[in-house]
Design brief:
This protein is an alpha+beta fold and about 750 residues long. A hairpin with a 3-residue loop joins strand 12 and strand 13. It is elongated and about 105 Å long. About 45% of the residues are buried. It contains 18 helices and 32 strands. The chain folds into 4 domains: about 5-25 and about 575-740, no CATH class; about 50-210 and about 215-240, Immunoglobulin-like (Sandwich); about 250-410, no CATH class; about 435-565, Neutral Protease, domain 2.
Length: about 750
């Protein structure tokens, strides 16, 4: 028989805390986050003096199809709604990253992984940063003029342009200026890129996906002043909201998809196509506006006549469009609780039969779930355009991959990839197109939040597709990889080593963990919706997100943000040992101790601690004595010792000792499998680690005798090493996987 004194057992957790293991993982983020002010409050909401700028655009562009060139003019009206006088303006010239000698070219790197390399890689990735093929990229700025037509003083600084104002733009004032420009459109097959064209050799036509095609106002805000960080390629965009009127001149056999709503559909469509379009706008059934037969017929001759499509878009941060004579076009109205946006798809015949079957449906599914989790989709339409080997987003329009084989067959993998990329890119309408975070600084604020909601759409609407991304379990391989190959989530995207796991999958996994395990769906959804609604059509920062999630949930999550977003620690919690105790009977208590118990109290000085490896020796026994008077202090009443002994005499006490091997603190989800074949699960908050972040222990009082104890039984806590999750130990990983699947 093994016996110990009960009050010593109670005191062990405090005695076990070692200062050299205490690494401040529960320290508040107050010293890291910016100080709240009247612009951004401590609650995470916009303050009473919050402000943001506005920029309206009138743009006219023309596609020179023969030369793959864009020419354009624009008039920008910029509103200084800040409390600051401005002496100059900054605009983005992102096409300049493709100019010869650009920073993106000069700073690009490549590693030869083996002695075989595709020829295409030399020009796309190695020679001059992918700008070596016969292509002259970058904007050619023809002029910058004021409202009276007078030349303005400007400076081009790589991918930025500075306009020096002739007089100070005071708070509350606005200024209008115009620019003229042109640039050559890149062949995406040769050099990649977020926008450009794809050439189809069989029919001699091209499909143009056009973006970053005009000089765009940079953001000026209360956090950084001008956001004029250069564009190197990975960090995307920070943009100002405004209203757009855009005229797009293309060959008259082209079909154009764009941000906003077409204003002259009756002029640019045939009578039959226009009637179908009007019907589709009001129908919840998929309707073809341009059929596949019409698109194939359209491919045969190239018109030399031009016509202009006119679009308007209100309160958007950017504008993109796609144009081709190859487009099939279908759409349907989506009924949300407050709005009825139009979901539509544009794709060449090479996308069928997959695209006509899945694309517009995916747009609809995305709008439904995202609206439920944030706010009803406020724009009049959402468009999915098929383009090879790309996933890229702009307000109300996105470009998406997923192409069947030439004979029309496709694999489940192709269908899965095409579906989730559409969900993801359409979802970007919410983050960052409406909840307008700074992509150039914080890629995770749009990619991570969007990937999180993407996974929820896929799990809810596509349970039969083998989608496994963005769950805590899916990120474990990355999190346990070499720390030399990782960066913290809170790292600028240009410095991130692996952007996919860092900005997409890891923050998405963290949010799924936070929703499904830590806060629970109801509390998380309410908090997440509060963030989205507070910051729609505004410019949030990471602090605004962190603070809102805590403000709306009443849960201190600083430990979570610190561990998941500011560090490269990973979750690896070991069930180090389980000690089994019963309360000794009166007869047992009277017997003389016959052997030394295992564990801390049985260890002699200088000896290593003896650990239980299983339950084969049965329980140790605890002598429970009547409570001595000194334990009562000044209390005049006393506990009923006899009743307490009777209440617990048949209970089973299990002291479970956990070791934090990975450094990232985690809640403890513990499953007890009983000898009678039943089981139960207990959830312990992460705060159990607050006194000792390396090792902690918890005593569980159970009604039944335990056969096995398992940490993270459902693989939902991102634990990277499952072999140490079970007591008694299971040696082989494959056996442990089977053990968990069977729920033993």
């Amino acid at each position: 028989m093994k016996r110990i004194i009960i009050w010593v057992l109670i005191c062990l957790p405090a005695l076990a805390s070692a200062q050299d293991d205490y690494k401040q993982r529960f320290e508040q983020l107050g010293s890291i986050l910016p100080t709240p002010n009247s612009y951004r409050t401590a609650s995470g909401a916009p303050g009473e003096n919050y402000w943001q700028q506005k920029a309206d655009y009138d743009i006219k562009v023309k596609l020179d199809e023969a030369n793959n060139k864009i020419t354009g003019t624009e008039t920008v009206t910029y509103y200084n709604q800040s409390p600051h006088p401005l002496n100059y303006l900054w605009l983005q010239l992102d096409q300049n990253m493709r100019a010869k000698g650009s920073d993106s070219e000069l700073t690009s790197t490549y590693t030869f992984f083996n002695d075989t390399i595709p020829a295409k890689f030399i020009e796309q990735y190695i020679a001059n940063g992918g700008n070596s093929y016969d292509f002259e990229g970058g904007f050619k700025i023809d002029y910058v003029k004021d409202a009276s037509g007078n030349p303005m003083n400007y400076l081009i600084q790589k991918t930025m342009m500075k306009i020096r104002l002739p007089q100070t733009l005071k708070p509350g004032e606005k200024i209008s200026f115009s620019t003229g420009w042109s640039y050559n459109i890149n062949d995406r097959m040769k050099g990649g890129g977020r926008s450009g064209f794809e050439y189809f050799e069989e029919d001699g036509n091209a499909l143009y996906t056009i973006a970053q095609f005009y000089p765009r106002m940079a953001v000026y805000n209360d956090v950084e002043g001008w956001q004029n960080k250069q564009f190197l390629g990975s960090g995307e965009f920070a943009l100002t909201f405004g209203d757009f009127n855009v005229e797009i001149t293309v060959p008259n056999d082209h079909i154009v998809a764009a941000t906003g709503m077409v204003q002259n559909a009756k002029e640019v469509l045939t009578k039959e196509q226009y009637n179908r379009y009007e019907k589709a706008l009001k129908s919840t059934e998929q309707t073809f506006i341009v059929t596949e037969e019409e698109a194939i017929a359209n491919e045969k001759d190239k018109s030399t006549q031009y016509e202009t499509w006119k679009f308007t878009a209100k309160n958007v941060r950017d504008f993109g469009f796609a144009t081709s004579r190859k487009f099939i076009w279908d759409g349907m109205m989506v009924e949300l609780s407050e709005t009825k946006p139009f979901a539509q798809s544009f794709y060449p015949k090479e996308g069928n039969p997959l695209w006509e079957k899945e694309s517009t449906k995916a747009v609809k599914n995305t709008l439904e779930l995202y609206s439920k989790r944030t706010f009803d989709y406020p724009y009049p339409q959402a468009t999915s355009v098929h383009a090879a080997s790309i996933g890229m987003e702009y307000p109300m329009i996105c470009f998406n991959f997923g192409r069947p084989n030439p004979d029309g067959t496709y694999s489940v993998r192709t269908q899965l990839g095409m579906t989730y990329v559409i969900v993801h890119e359409v979802g970007h309408n919410y983050f960052p197109m409406i909840v307008n975070s700074d992509e150039r600084q914080w890629a995770w604020m749009d990619e991570g939040l969007n990937s999180f909601l993407e996974s929820n759409v896929m799990w809810e609407y596509y349970p039969d597709l083998p989608y496994t991304d963005n769950s805590p379990q899916a990120i474990t391989g990355y999190m346990k990889s070499s720390k030399d190959a990782q960066r913290a989530i809170m790292t600028n995207p240009e410095q991130v080593l692996r952007l996919g796991p860092n900005a997409y999958a890891k923050p998405a996994a963290a949010l799924n963990l936070l929703r499904n395990t830590i806060l629970g769906p109801e509390l998380f959804d309410e908090s997440f919706k509060a963030y989205a609604q507070r910051w729609k059509f505004k410019h949030p920062t990471p602090a605004d997100f962190f603070r809102t999630m805590e403000d709306a949930s009443a849960v201190d999550l600083d430990w979570f943000w610190r561990g998941w977003f500011y560090s490269t620690d990973h979750v690896d919690i070991a069930v180090d040992e389980v000690k089994y105790y019963r309360i000794a009977s009166e007869e047992q208590s009277k017997e003389k101790k016959t052997k030394t118990p295992k564990g801390d109290l049985g260890k002699k000085e200088g000896e290593e601690e003896q650990k239980n490896t299983d339950f084969s020796e049965g329980p140790s026994y605890i002598n429970v004595q009547d409570t001595p008077d000194f334990w009562y202090g000044e209390y005049r009443s006393k506990a009923d010792d006899k009743a307490i002994k009777a209440r617990y005499k048949d209970k089973h006490f299990y002291e479970v000792i956990f070791t934090n091997e990975g450094g990232l603190v985690s809640p403890l989800k513990i499953k007890f499998d009983y000898k009678d074949g039943t089981s139960e699960t207990r959830m312990i908050p992460a705060e159990i680690w607050r006194k000792n972040e390396k090792k902690t222990r918890k005593v569980f009082i159970l009604d039944k005798e335990v056969a096995n104890v398992t940490f993270d039984p459902n693989n939902e806590l991102a634990d990277t090493e499952i072999n140490n999750n079970v007591f008694p130990k299971v040696e082989e990983s494959t056996k442990l996987d089977e053990f968990k699947k069977k729920g033993k």
